[in-house]
Amino acid sequence: MSKDPLRGYEPRVEDYLARCETDEEALEVIRYLLRRGELDEERARDLESKIKREGVRSIVERREFGYYLERYYDPDNREYRG
């Protein structure tokens, strides 16, 4: 079986925002990442401003449950796609 292409991958803020259903959830995620020190204040302000003006979908497309499995795994060949 081929190597898992996501092993060791560190999610970016956009990866978290892609899972949000609403702008309010996205703003909450930004505040959370800021508190944890995973996002600096300037970037957080920029993202919050854009979400309030244009919505979270202006930053990233919504990723539904199963997105990563569908994108990175080939069930017919039982292997990961690169």
What features would you describe in this structure?
The protein contains four helices and two strands. It is mainly α and 82 residues long. It has one domain. The model has no long low-confidence stretch (mean pLDDT 88).
What's this, in brief?
The protein has 82 residues and is mostly helical. Helices cover 46% and strands 5% of the residues.
Placed side by side, the strands forming the largest sheet appear as 1-2
In terms of quaternary structure, the protein is single chain
Radius of gyration, in Å, reads: 15 Å
- Please provide the ordered H/E string of secondary-structure elements: HHHHEE
Q: What is the distance, rounded to the nearest whole angstrom, between the alpha carbons of the first and last residues?
A: 12 Å
User: What is the makeup of the main sheet?
Assistant: 2 strands, antiparallel
